[in-house]
Amino acid sequence: MLPETPTPEPIDVPVGAPVFRHNNVHSSQAEPPVASFGLDDSSAVDAANQPEALPQSSHDVHQPVQEAQLAEEQHLEAEDSSEGDSALGSDAASVTTSLSESIYNYRQEHGRTYHAYKDGKYIFPNDEREADRLDLQNHIFRLTFGNRLFFSPLKDPRRCLDIGTGTGIWAVEFADNYPECQVTGIDLSPGQPTLVPPNLKFLIDDAEDLWLYDEPFDFIHARLMAGCFTHWANFFRRAYQNLEPGGWLEVQDYGLPVKSGDGTHLGTDLLRWGQLLCQASMKLGRPLGSECSDHYVEWMQAAGFVDIQVKVFMWPTNGWPKDPYMKEIGRWNQINILEGLEGFCLALLTRGLGWKKEEVDVFVAKVSSDLRNRRIHAYFPMPVVFGRRPIERAGLF
Fold first, then answer.
1. 208 — alpha (psi -120 to 50), left (phi > 0) or beta?
2. 364 or 81: which leads in pLDDT
3. Other CB atoms within 10 A of residue 317 CB
4. Which of these, 234, 243, 221, lies nearest to 386 by C-alpha position?
5. What are the backbone dihedrals phi and psi of residue 72, each rounded to the nearest 5 degrees, phi first?
6. What mean pLDDT comes out for the span 82-106?
7. How far apart are CA 188 and CA 203, in angstroms?
8. 37-51, 209-223, 282-296, 371-385: lowest mean pLDDT where?
9. How far apart are CA 321 and CA 378, in angstroms?
10. Residues 343, 253: Cα–Cα separation, whole Å
């Protein structure tokens, strides 16, 4: 007999709603709100011994719209949970014309839809509910990165590839910022807008297939792709081969299971959730979370990248931090994870570990309870790793 499912607590939403897609209509005026705090880049971590200093002029590094704090990994003081904070939980109740119709025949599974092209390769849903969550997630990234889209020191990019473009929101914003750059966004699902900047196109493509692009890129961007690839080393080799000499690859991802600075995550269903997802993904042959993000540097080095740098950020699991800026990120991330929790678990736990839908439902309820518990001071590490393809030097003779 299954245990009773806990009743979720009603919660408020953080102030400053993110910009969502609006009927596929592109607007260059849509900017997410950002907290105004002092800029601090001091905790960047070099991932390799650097023979040269990277350019840091205002023309080389993507500047935020306004100065903003960065949510880099740090020791955070927890707010006294006895004070009671009602802002817990979620308010989420919520292409190219040459595509074959078969791409739209999505897999239906446990009430959610999944991509049809290369069916089964991507283990998260692709329905409208997930699309809204992905746009919310983009808002959290902008808050986390001080309103930056990337950290690689680009100089007048001419060709950019966005891998796993999802709803296309990052690609649209990048294309808006760099109108002289030809931007290509690829994904397994056709969920992108049709009214986009003239320098942007979307393709249904699989980054695990042979890359057949006409020209190399000078920037390749991949966000939250952990769990998508069977052989990450192959991905980094292909990216290297398809970059111009001097071009940059940037991977923005997540770590899993969660961490905490005081051990309050130990023994929780929240911790077990991350462990089970990693276990299931390994069984399915597509590692996710820290199983792959912890190895990005070594794989990039093996592929030939140089000037590799790592920045590690953090997303609190709810509003437990005392710091107002980190509290806001935690509140938004709580909504993000609660809304995506069922989708994260369904395919992985049923396909990878053989669970029944009813077992998943009960477990999701337990994890949701932990996500609402401000006495659990957990966070997701959010690494950003970027590196450059070296410029080939002509021989002396």
1. alpha
2. 364
3. 24
4. 221
5. -75, 155
6. 40
7. 9
8. 37-51
9. 10
10. 18
Mean pLDDT of 104-121: 43
- Specify the amino acid at residue 214: D
Neighbours of 318 (CB within 10 A): 27
Kindly give the pairing relationship between strand 45-46 and strand 107-109: unpaired
Q: Is the pLDDT of residue 239 over 60?
A: yes
Q: Is 128 in contact with 49 (CB distance < 8 Å)? A: no
As a whole number of angstroms, the distance between CA 154 and CA 181 comes to: 12
For residue 117, pLDDT over 50 is answered with no
Task: Please give the structure tokens belonging to residue 196.
Answer: 């986009």
Which two tokens mark 283? 């069984």
69 pLDDT more than 90: no
Mean pLDDT of 261-277: 98
Beta pairing partners, 378: 260
CA distance 340 to 334: 10
What is d(CA 159, CA 161) in angstroms, rounded to the nearest whole number? 7
Compute and round to an integer the Cα radius of gyration of the chain. Answer: 21
First to last CA, the chain: 79
Question: What domains sit in the chain, N to C, each tagged with a CATH number?
Answer: 45-388 (3.40.50.150)
Angle at 274 between CA 258 and CA 344, to 5 degrees: 120
Whole-angstrom distance, CA of residue 134 vs CA of residue 170: 10
Question: The tokens of 198 are what?
Answer: 């003239």
The three-state secondary structure class of 280 is: helix
Q: Which pTM does this prediction carry?
A: 0.74
pLDDT of residue 372: 97
> Cα separation of 218 and 48, whole Å?
21
| DSSP state letters, 57-114 | STTTSPPPSS-----BS---PBP-GGG-----S-------TT--GGGG-PEEETTEEE
Tokens of 98: 């040459």
What is the rounded CA–CA span in Å between residue 250 and residue 310? 10
Rounded CA-CA distance 341/37 in Å is 31
Average pLDDT along the chain: 79
Judged on CB neighbours under 10 Å (0-12, 13-18, 19+), 388 is: buried
- What is the number of residues in the chain? 397
- Positive or negative, the CA dihedral 184, 190, 191, 193 is positive
